[in-house]
Amino acid sequence: MLNDLPTDRYIQIDGINTRYWTLGEQGSPVLLIHGQAGAIDYWYKNVFALAQQHRVYALDWVGSGRSDKPQKTYTIDDISQFILHFMDVVGLSRASLIAGSIGGAIALKIVLAEPERVDKLVLIGSGGLGKEVAFPARLTSLPIVGELLNHPSPGAAKFMVQQCIYDPAPYLNDSEFMDLVLHNMASDILQFQTRTFRTMGNFFGIKPDFLRTIGDRLSEIQSPTLIMWGKQDRAFPIHHAEVALKGIPNAKLQIFDPCGHLPYLECAEEFNRSVLEFLAG
After folding, report:
1. Using one digit for the tens of pLDDT, what is the confidence trace for 65-121?
2. What's the half-sphere exposure (Cβ side, CA atoms, 13 Å) at 13?
3. Residue 271 and residue 32: Cα distance in Å, rounded?
4. Cα–Cα distance between 252 and 154 in angstroms, integer?
5. pLDDT for 124-178, tens place per residue?
6. What distance lies between CA 78 and its chain's CA centroid?
7. Whole-angstrom Cα distance, residue 267 to residue 270?
8. What are phi and psi of 129, to 5 degrees?
9. Beta strands 118-124 and 95-100: pairing type?
10. How far is the C-alpha of 165 from the C-alpha of 181, rounded, in Å?
11. How would you list the strands of the sheet with 251-256, edge to edge?
12. What is the spatial distance between Cα 109 and Cα 105, in angstroms, rounded to a whole number?
């Protein structure tokens, strides 16, 4: 399946050579936003199903995947502005956002900054909703320790898959998938994303000041929102979903069980069906 992916395209966004996909010829536009150490490749179980009814866009945001990795530090707000500029360049005045993990925090920043640009919102195991975050992420916030951890290895890739996926065995036995994970744990990617994480989190979790920039404003979000969470998510615990459900006026929650941090991979058929129904509603 990883050999049968959409054609890579590249575009300049704010001087950054940016990899993206676009597919589908009809329907309303949808933009996919991956999480930390992610890339557009991880949507391989979703893009073709979504493209049956929608014009689908997905990008490797700055510092990730096969896009450029500048040396400067980007905050989550900076990345959200980068994605808005991507929308400008490809001619997307408005789109539905489907975003996972830290990508969810980015999407929340987008809808709060420019609500008129967001049709519907899908948050998948989203960051930015609570203090708790997986211990390995907190470790990377420590000076020196974080830098020492920013070296890819097959063992580190295996650990990441075990942390993120409820039943990791099929993925651990898939050499193509593990190569993808290892590629997206390259030193330059991890260094970039460690710098970003330190702007929003520390050893104790997500910083209160950062949480307030989202949590205090959830009631402003008018876009219909689907919150999707794996019951066994170890990156961001499931009670963070309740924060979004209570805070966003027009939100509903779908829980996948059993499932870890990546419902779009682990429960792809149910995920695709639910997202398409939500977008059509």
Report:
1. 999 999 999 999 999 999 999 999 999 999 999 999 999 999 999 999 999 999 999
2. 29
3. 14
4. 38
5. 999 999 999 988 889 888 988 888 778 889 999 999 999 999 999 999 999 999 9
6. 15
7. 6
8. -115, -5
9. parallel
10. 12
11. 9-13, 16-23, 55-59, 29-33, 95-100, 118-124, 225-230, 251-256
12. 6
Radius of gyration for the chain, computed over Cα atoms and rounded to the nearest angstrom: 17
Rounded Cα–Cα distance for residues 46 and 5 (Å): 11
Nearest residue to 100 (alpha-carbon basis) of 54, 71, 64, 51 = 64
Between CA 146 and CA 138 the distance in angstroms is 9
Residue with token string 């919102």? 121
Does residue 181 contact residue 65 with C-beta atoms inside 8 Å? no
Determine the residue type at 48.
F
Distance, in Å, from the CA atom of 21 to the CA atom of 281, rounded to the nearest integer, reads 25
By CB neighbour count within 10 A (0-12 exposed, 13-18 middle, 19+ buried), where does 57 fall? buried
Peptide bond into 6 cis (omega under 30): no
Both structure tokens of 122:
């899908």
What are the residues whose beta carbons fall under 8 Å from the beta carbon of 258, sequence distance 6 or more? 166, 167, 230, 231, 232
What domains can be seen in the chain, in order of their start residue?
A: 9-134+206-280 (3.40.50.1820)
